[in-house]
TrEMBL record:
InterPro entries for this protein: Pyridox_Oxase_FMN-dep, Pyridox_Oxase_N, Split_barrel_FMN-bd
Name by which UniProt lists this protein: Pyridoxamine 5'-phosphate oxidase family protein
Pyridoxamine 5'-phosphate oxidase N-terminal domain residues: 34-152
Domain of life: Bacteria
Record-linked PANTHER family: FAD-BINDING, PUTATIVE (AFU_ORTHOLOGUE AFUA_6G07600)-RELATED (PTHR42815:SF2)
Length: 206
């Protein structure tokens, strides 16, 4: 790839894009404004971005609407449910507390962006607050909010993300078992992995 067409400094970037529109600045605040809190309470999904010694990570987190609780206008509480135990995000937070959250609400093209710093809590009272069926999360991320703003609808509109007619059938793509078998030379994965997946996933949701 030619290197003489690569942007290398902020001056060149500003010359290319120009000044931000006033609304893009006015929408950013340092706390969870009551109007932004409504988006948090409605969201059943959030992408969690972290940075650590070994690189970057973006992890999907989801549950019922409002599963990310609002502690106060400067604090979010995100329960960590059972997963694959890679704990990439949590390991990153131990090294670098900075996090970014992107909240998505089905049917709504605007998203909510939150940046802040997180710590991993195992406070028994906090864990009990997020019990489901008597099962508490392993830990809870306590996020100290630093900036909050909504992202305009263009990206999701271009993607037609919520248009059911554009949805892709899962069977149109390689199955998890197929991928695992190919990458592990048959040591894990395969047809049995795919057959047992629905029951395995349902059992380990909480």
């Amino acid at each position: 790839m030619p290197t003489d067409h690569v942007i290398r400094d902020e001056a060149a970037l500003a010359a290319l894009y120009g000044a931000p529109v006033p609304a893009s600045i006015a929408k950013e605040v340092d706390h969870l404004h009551p109007l932004y809190q409504e988006f948090v309470r409605a969201a059943p999904f959030v992408a969690l971005a972290t940075s650590g010694r070994d690189g970057l990570d973006v992890s999907p987190r989801g549950d019922g609407p409002g599963f990310v609780a609002i502690g106060d206008p400067h604090t979010l509480l995100l329960p960590d449910r059972p997963g694959n135990n890679r704990i990439d995000s949590l390991r990153n937070i131990l090294a670098d507390s900075r996090v970014a959250l992107l909240f998505l609400i089905p049917g709504v093209n605007e998203t909510l962006r939150v940046n802040g710093r997180a710590e991993i809590s195992v406070d028994p009272d906090l864990l009990a607050r997020f019990e489901v069926g008597g099962k508490p999360p392993r830990s809870v991320l306590v996020v100290r909010v630093e900036t909050v703003f909504f992202q305009c609808a263009r990206a999701l509109m271009r993607a037609s993300l919520w248009d059911a007619s554009r949805h892709v059938a899962r069977t149109a793509l390689p199955s998890n078992g197929t991928i695992l078998a190919a990458l592990s030379a048959g040591r894990v994965g395969g047809e049995e992995y795919d057959r047992s997946a629905p029951a395995r996933l349902a059992k380990g949701l909480y």
